[in-house]
Amino acid sequence: MTTLNRRLTATLALIIPLACSSEEDPAPEAQSIVDVARADGRFTTLTQALGAAGLTATLEGAGPFTVFAPTDAAFSALPAGALDALLADTDALKAVLTYHVLPRRVSAAEVVGLTTATTVQGDDITISVTDGQVRINGALVIQTDVAADNGIIHVIDAVLTPPEEEEEPGTIVDVAVATPELSTLVTALQTASLAETMASPGPFTVFAPTNAAFDALPAGALDALLADPAALAKVLSYHVVEGRVDAAQVAGLASALTLQGAAVEIRVEAGEVFINDAKVIMTDVQASNGIVHIIDAVITPPTIVDLALKNPDFSTLVTALQAAELVDTLAGPGPFTVFAPTNAAFEAIPQADLQALLADKAALTGVLTYHVVPGDLRAAAVVEQRALTTAQGTSAIIAAGAAEARINGARIVATDIVAANGVIHVIDAVITPSTVAELASYAPELSTLVTAVGAADLGDALSAPGPFTVFAPVDAAFDALPAGTVDALLADIPALTDVLTYHVVAGAVTSDQVVGLSQATTLQGSDVAITVEGDAVKINDAQVLAVDILGTNGVIHLIDGVLLPPAP
Q1: How do residues 249-267 score in pLDDT, each as one tens digit?
Q2: CA–CA distance, 265 with 258 (Å, rounded to integer)
Q3: In terms of domains, do 362 and 345 share one?
Q4: The pairing of beta strand 101-102 with beta strand 116-118
Q5: What is the pTM for the complete model shown?
Q6: What does the alpha-carbon distance between residue 285 and residue 262 come to, in Å, rounded to a whole number?
């Protein structure tokens, strides 16, 4: 080639590029994460899945996103049928795919500085770096920082699956039904008609005995309980505490009040928790309406005797019950309401009198049974009564005020100590069976009558063996008399005596006998008329308000009017 030709060729070589560069170059086409994945060749299953889940357009959008992208090999490693199942369940597929996506651009350098990250799906992924290897959950990151215009891809060798949503636990009953070791408890709850209660909102904490715990009861005990739903309900409710009390809280308690009304004792020994003598063997079984702790023994609520034995302030009472051979009675089914004198109450009795009482079984039995009322009467019911008929057979007067309540003058200092077979109310004095005169003295609404009896010097007469029936006017009856009448009577003892004895009938005439009479002769000598109109009983024109307040020497019926004897 000549020198001219060589120069021409060189010149053309310079001109042609310049000519080409003078034309405007077209802008490069934007590459979304989906575009990059499609072009890569390793993500055909991923891009197919994105299309099936309707997520392609999302990951082609503005973003930015970070995608931990499983390869085709990662999808192939799923269990047989798993991928087909996902592709057939759009919601599940969408959840899996969005669990691989972060709603921001996170480079590899940033990823290794994290321990967790929240995905578009809503749950967190865990990030760990070991020996230079980065793992997302358990999947190994095999390539990083594959750039796209709307984000970044990090390639992983396994498909990530979001954590399964925990099913909302069922009720305590559902939990028990689903636990084979609690089948006897389920049967017992159904028999005692408590299943509905234990399925109610609560919340409750249940100390649940296993089948083996029920099997360990004495022979025949379980059958006896199942045959007595009321007794069974008491035992079962003794295993239930109001509120949701987890294991850590339980271990911090010394006792807990149960639905049955009595408290369970809680103690921790060598790291193990005991409820009474039952060991907690599993804790914090969650239910929608509470929590279950499983125990290895059935616990039974204490009887009245058990509670008395545990309370050192009742030691004299226990000694007295033993001397009167009443322990077995008060440990029996009952129910009983016991007004329990403290040691100090017994100490207030002269020592010689107390020793004499303890030595006289019949008299001691009479005194002790006078502290017992058949039935389970809680404090709210007690204070609504005028008088209570005791197991001894006679009545004790209840005087309830705003500040305190008394029984036969003894102050009630503690109430509603609940036992399996009844309830204890603590009193500060020993009470004894009383005459009609003594009973009247304890009744706040008979204060005017008591004053009048004292003025007429009839107290000894009404404390005599009798028996007597007293139609006792309440204070309001005296207040209803014409002004000055009471003062006039108190100033005229013969007239007052006539009036008072006109309220007294010889013999103990109980209400069922009164309604069978049309009249009765009084100690004053004149008759009173008795009429029955429906449920109303009248003595002359006074209506009977309360009946059968029984004393050791007769009976009192309260009336709402003062009876005036006929003129001579």
Answers
A1: 999 999 999 999 899 999 9
A2: 10
A3: yes
A4: unpaired
A5: 0.68
A6: 24
